[in-house]
Design a protein that fits this description.
- By secondary structure, the chain is an alpha/beta fold.
- The protein has one domain: Aldolase class I (TIM Barrel), CATH 3.20.20.70.
- Helix content is about 40%, strand content about 20%.
- It is built from eleven helices and twelve strands.
- Strands 1, 2, 3, 4, 5, 8, 9, 10, 11 and 12 form a ten-stranded mixed beta sheet that branches.
- Helix 2 crosses helix 3 (about 100-110) and helix 4 (about 140-155) packs across helix 5 (about 170-180).
- The longest helix is centred in the middle third of the chain and has 17 residues, at about 140-155.
- It starts with 14 loop residues before the first helix and ends with a helix.
Length: about 325
C-alpha cells in the first residue's frame, strides 16, 4: 500500500534495525590479502603508488602473514619479484624460486592460512609479457607448458590454491592436467576468467616491475567493451576445470560480476585491483573523501554485485573495521 500506510523508513530508524534488515553482509571470511615478496633479508619496501603496501623479504613476509592471520584474515595471494628476469621467466617455475620459497616459509610458520599463488610469467620475463614472445608476438601454445610447470612447482612447495592470471587460451586445462599428473588432484584452480585489459593496473606494475617493454596486453586480456565474451571465457574455464572464477578489475566491472554470478554456480571472486586502492587512498590523502567509509562502501558494492570473495589491498584495514579491533 502507498504512503502513509507504507513507510520504508520504519526499518531504518536504528542501527539494530538496519543491521537486522541488511540484504548484503561483508565479513572477514570474504577477504583475500594480496602480498608481494622479494629476495633478501629484513626488507619491507613501501610501494610508492600504493601507500601502506610493501615488497617483503621472506622473513618480513612471514611476520606480515602472521599479523594478518591474527587479525582474522583467512587467505593470502602471493606475487613474486625474481632476482633476475629473462626471456622465458625461468624463476617462475624454478623449485627454488622466490614464490616457491615464500610458500614453504609461510606454510611452515602459518600452516592454517590459505596460500594462493599467482600463475603468470609477466613478473618474471625481461619483456614484461605474460607469455613466450617470438618476433614480437605473444605465443599462446608454447606458453601453456611453462604455466603448467609453474603451477605444479607451486603445488610442490605447498600452495593451497593456484590462480592463473595470464589469460592464455587453454591454460586452465593444461594446469589441471599437470596438477593431476603430479598427484595434486585436490589443489583448486582459481582462474582469472574475465580479466580485462584495464588501465587500473598501473600501480601493480610498478610494484613488481612488470610493465611491458613493448606493446600491450590487449591480444590476450579482454576488451573493456565486451560483456558476453566474459561469460564465454568463464564457461570455457569452468569446462577446463576451474574451481573458482574471477572477474578483474572489480569496481569498473560490477555488471560483469553480476552476470557471472547469475549464470554460473561456482564460487565467484572479484579482484579490487591496485588502481582502485590507489584512487581511494590518494583522494583520502587530499581530504576529499572519508577513506574508511569509501573503502567499506566499495567492498560492499563488490559483494552486493555477487562476489563470494574479494581480493583487496584494503583487507587488513577492512578487517579491523569489521571486527572493531
Amino acid at each position: 500500500m502507498p504512503f502513509p500506510h507504507t513507510r520504508l523508513r520504519r526499518l531504518r530508524m536504528s542501527p539494530a534495525l538496519r543491521a537486522l534488515t541488511a540484504e548484503t553482509v561483508l565479513t572477514t571470511d570474504d577477504l583475500i590479502y594480496p602480498l608481494f615478496v622479494q629476495h633478501g633479508t629484513g626488507l619491507k619496501d613501501e610501494i610508492s603508488t600504493m601507500p601502506g603496501n610493501y615488497r617483503f623479504s621472506l622473513d618480513r613476509l612471514v611476520e606480515e602473514v602472521k599479523e594478518a592471520q591474527d587479525l582474522g584474515i583467512k587467505a593470502v595471494l602471493l606475487f613474486g619479484i625474481p632476482k633476475q628476469k629473462d626471456e622465458v621467466g625461468s624463476e617462475a617455475y624454478d623449485d627454488d624460486g622466490i614464490i616457491q620459497r615464500a610458500v614453504r616459509a609461510v606454510k611452515d610458520s602459518v600452516p592454517d592460512i590459505i596460500v594462493i599463488t599467482d600463475v603468470c610469467l609477466c613478473e618474471y620475463t625481461s619483456h614484461g609479457h605474460c607469455g613466450i614472445v617470438v618476433d614480437g608476438e605473444i605465443k599462446n601454445d608454447p606458453t601453456l607448458d611453462l604455466l603448467a610447470q609453474m603451477a605444479a612447482s607451486h603445488a610442490r612447495a605447498g600452495a593451497d590454491m593456484v590462480a592463473p592470471s595470464d589469460m592464455m587460451d587453454g591454460r586452465v586445462a593444461a594446469i589441471r592436467e599437470a596438477l593431476d599428473d603430479e598427484g595434486f588432484r585436490n589443489t583448486p584452480i582459481m582462474s582469472y576468467a574475465a580479466k580485462y585489459a584495464s588501465a587500473f593496473y598501473g600501480p601493480f606494475r610498478e610494484a613488481v616491475d612488470s610493465a611491458p617493454s613493448f606493446g600491450d596486453r590487449r591480444s590476450h586480456q579482454m576488451q573493456p567493451p565486451n560483456a558476453r565474451e566474459a561469460l564465454l571465457e568463464t564457461a570455457l574455464d569452468i569446462e577446463e576445470g576451474a574451481d573458482i572464477v574471477m572477474v578483474k578489475p572489480a569496481l569498473a566491472y560490477l555488471d560483469i560480476i553480476r552476470r557471472v554470478r547469475e549464470r554460473f554456480d561456482v564460487p565467484v571472486c572479484a579482484y579490487s585491483v591496485s588502481g582502485e586502492f590507489s584512487l581511494i587512498t590518494a583522494a583520502a590523502e587530499r581530504g576529499w573523501i572519508d577513506r574508511d567509509a569509501v573503502m567499506m562502501e566499495s567492498l560492499l558494492s563488490i559483494k552486493r554485485a555477487g562476489a563470494d570473495m574479494i581480493i583487496t589491498y584494503f583487507a587488513p584495514d577492512a578487517v579491523r573495521i569489521l571486527t572493531g579491533t
